[in-house]
Design a protein that fits this description.
The complex is a heterodimer. Chain A is mainly beta. Chain A has strands at 4-7, 10-13, 19-25, 31-38, 42-51, 54-57, 65-66, 76-78, 87-94, 107-108, 112-116. The model of chain A has no long low-confidence stretch (mean pLDDT 92). In chain B, the strands form three sheets. In chain B, strands 2, 5, 6, 9, 10 and 11 form a six-stranded mixed sheet that branches. Classes of the chains: A mainly beta, B mainly beta.
């Protein structure tokens, strides 16, 4: 089954304790992206990746890191989490169109709810 | 600057009544617009895109470049339409989402 898988689905942690949220897709998509979803703010892009070893900042990258060493994986790293990073995080992937730009159909993971105390 | 505006946070509509979820965008290039939906306890999924000009689950959306709008419409609301709806704009390498509208269908 084609899907995007995120882990963990739920996590409660404390300020400053490094954590990683994993994301894996089995659709051979070139494009992957992380979003955070907050009430009243919608979905905001954190980082995205056009392909292996190619990453770029979205609208709210502060406090986050990513890596894209393999095509299928795109982990989100919080080196020193803070309470304002409490949120619902979504990973998404998409194939690139023939023109090199994304087709726009994003396939989403189920989300990871993170609470930072 | 807000590129995608969904003016209604919450829209309540009676079952059987028409639905219109508003979306306006700001983009100087050639826009590609999408509607995504998130049903309760499910992941976000694509509902429709303007280039396909199709109707999905009875919903349609027409791109109006003059008014820079991409409103989502359905003539007769159903209870299973209750969900969170996001309008999205594809800009170069990014997809920008609006803040979303929660559609609540009243029985």
């Amino acid at each position: 089954e084609a899907q995007v898988t995120q882990n963990p689905r739920y996590l409660i942690t404390v300020t400053g304790k490094k954590l990683t949220v994993t994301c894996s897709q089995n659709m051979n998509h070139e494009y992957m992206s992380w979003y955070r979803q907050d009430p009243g703010l919608g979905l905001r892009q954190i980082y995205y990746s056009m392909n292996v070893e190619v990453t770029d900042k979205g609208d709210v990258p502060e406090g986050y890191k990513v890596s894209r060493k393999e095509k299928r994986n795109f982990p989100l790293i919080l080196e020193s989490p803070s309470p304002n990073q409490t949120s619902l995080y979504f990973c998404a992937s998409s194939r690139l169109g023939t023109s090199g730009s994304r087709t726009g159909e994003l396939f989403f993971g189920e989300g990871s709810r993170l609470t930072v105390l | 600057a807000q590129r995608v505006t969904q003016p209604e946070k919450l829209l309540s509509v009676f079952k059987g009544a028409p639905v219109e979820l508003k979306c306006n965008y700001s983009y100087s290039g050639s826009p590609e617009l999408f509607w995504y939906v998130q049903y309760s306890r499910q992941r976000l999924q694509l509902l429709l895109r303007h280039i396909s000009r199709e109707s999905i689950k009875g919903f349609t959306a027409d791109l109006n470049k003059g008014e820079t709008s991409f409103h989502l419409k359905k003539p007769f609301a159903q209870e299973e339409d209750s969900a969170m709806y996001y309008c999205a704009l594809k800009m170069d390498d990014k997809i920008i989402f609006g803040k979303g509208t929660r559609l609540h269908i009243l029985p």
